[in-house]
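Quick one: structure for this chain?
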Amino acid sequence: MTTSQINADKSVLLNIFNDPFLCISFSQFGEDTLIIENFATKVFSKRKKFYVDIGAYHPSRFSNTKVLNMLGWNGINVDANPDSIELFKNARPRDINLNLGISTQGGDLKFYRFSEGAVNTFDKKAADDLINNGWKFIGQLSIPTLTINELLEKYVPPDVLESGIGFLDIDCEGLDAGIIEMLDITRFNPLIIAVESHGFDPLSPMNNQICKKILPHGYVLAAYLGPTLLFWKQNPDY
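Got it. Here's what it folds into:
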């Protein structure tokens, strides 16, 4: 590569980064752009800027919490893959990084791992479907799990428990609806909830188990991006 080519590349990059309309996203489907837009102009006087990312996977790739972390938020990152949690320990040392699974019953469960770590799962049917569709299976581990309420009671700091979680992100590859069903929403009071729901029908949201659980607690379904449902509190207390 010549000097002129290097300088041309630098010029292109500078033009990109100096563009006032530049939008940076680390999420798989742009979820973080909407989350940041919702929080950008808000002054938090009652709540801590605290997230809980369940099925966190990676500190940057497909991360719905990366930009929040860059803006000074901290929180809890939970993943059953020990390799993922090592990445979080290095990238986010201020966070609570837990090599755990979240299930509807707690106890040790088999965790099915693939070469594409974003699809790792505790759900055997989901794992079998992936294998049958050609995804490379690399083995299984026995991983301790907690229920979502056990996790939040044990690891969320007392001041956050008192005021409520800022952002709750759940991506558990097939177990999401069951986890949400168990969540004590009133107790933990998140401002924004992101949760995966494959096969969601936007024309009939109340036929969806996740919507049936969340919407009656004072939330609106703000967006549907890829498989992700984003819920806002209707009357937020910042």
